[in-house]
Amino acid sequence: WPLLFTFDDGWRANLDWALPVLRDCPWVIFAATDAVEEGGIWWQEALLWALRSGICTQEQLLRRAACSESSRHPELPSELHLLLAYAGLSGQGRKVALAPYAQRLRSRYRGQSMVSAEDLGLLHRSNVAIGAHGATHLPLTHLEDTERDLRRARNWLNDMLAPQSIAAMSFPHGRW
Q1: Helix (H, G, I), strand (E, B) or coil at 23
Q2: How many angstroms separate the CA atoms of 46 and 67, rounded?
């Protein structure tokens, strides 16, 4: 029976834990390139951690993002709705709104939460396949320009690795 292990997003734990264990098995990391490029605490991680840990409710986080009723997505699960609300902020606005949560989360980590571009190169040289998971890691069904997001992710990965080495993708949040 064929078996393939896949990991989404590009978490540092994939390098630290999966590489030693899966060295002789086929596996793929589908990297969300903005998260890898950002390094440190990824804004989506800080947002979802604040919600999941109970530090904030969804309504408190939406108020913090100054999310208007017209920009709400009632058809989506609450976590995706939050991601889209915060994705609509400017980079600086998002950083300010999430600063307290990112700081608290940063104090819990030892080092980086996401792999770096160099880590992806090491994984690639270790025969781990690297695929695209979008640039923004937002649901493709709610992006203004899906093709641009996917192209940006593929091009970034090809620039970091061997050209034309990215031949697969995983849909962020399973939505296409």
Answers
A1: coil
A2: 18
